[in-house]
């Protein structure tokens, strides 16, 4: 029901018709008319002749925007036999008062619903509800929680690995990211003790972004499905061998698909003397983690060998019957060790990573030596065993990650 303006009690009323004076010009004033509220109104009275008391009436001010301006046309008098409804006060009728209270209650309920809604700009639409970060299952710094593994598992699903889903789950991602940063910081403390040549860098300098570069990829999913971090003497972007953990909870060590010049340098040094590398990849502790030191019969990844990154024939200028042809055909010199979810969630997971790093460190240092041109005076030093730590490697790449 539209709002209705009311007059103030201080409004002056016109005198009765019989007491009105006749104008001097002799013309009689027309009979007064009754307005819709049952009040008498002079036909000559205009809308602009509102008294000062009426203009200051609070009801009129509040409802002014909802009421049209009064017409300036003359109003016809109501028929003599028809009575106008009597004007009543707001509280005169109990029925009307009850209806008013119900209306107020309804209005209050509608306002409560409006508080839950928000105005959308043109072209916008509601796409979902933001998922808050879990309140339970959190772990101390230096540990990985099941919440993080669950979030990364969801990213593997095509329907979840898109920007819309990620935006709705951003609080969950931020919690997992902060947990990963804390883990990397704790692991770095152990790593620099195992290999003092690795600098102690802050997490932001060694952690990789979760966003994929899809410019030249057929896979257009925008996000990686795991967290990863790299550690090296030259920083995260070093080109030399190192440790890397990522994918499905793994740690990898070595050099993966090195550049043409680095790969040729490794092969030249292996042609001269492969004994040091052979010895390191054949130790019982190394084989227990990465497999036997020979190619797998079916080409599966085993130790440093794997058909997916090996040459099908001998390198150019090398006899295909060379005794070290298995090493010379390699295009990558990397080893991988995986972990179960139970191991990842264990409180001492970072200590287990440090143990693997301790075993694989001599292999990484050996590769760094093979990727550099040896001095003329050290032509036979590689066959005599592993040099002392700190004097053998030119640069280390150590990567660690979790998914």
UniProtKB/TrEMBL annotation:
Composition-biased stretches, type Acidic residues, lie in: 36-65, 111-121, 380-403
The domain of life is Eukaryota
Tell me the InterPro entries matching this sequence: CHP02453 (IPR012808)
- Where would you find the membrane-spanning parts of this chain? none
What segment(s) does the record annotate as region Disordered?
A: 1-121, 372-403
**Low complexity bias locations:** 1-15, 78-100
Name of the molecule in the record: Uncharacterized protein
What species is this protein from? Answer: Trametes pubescens (White-rot fungus)
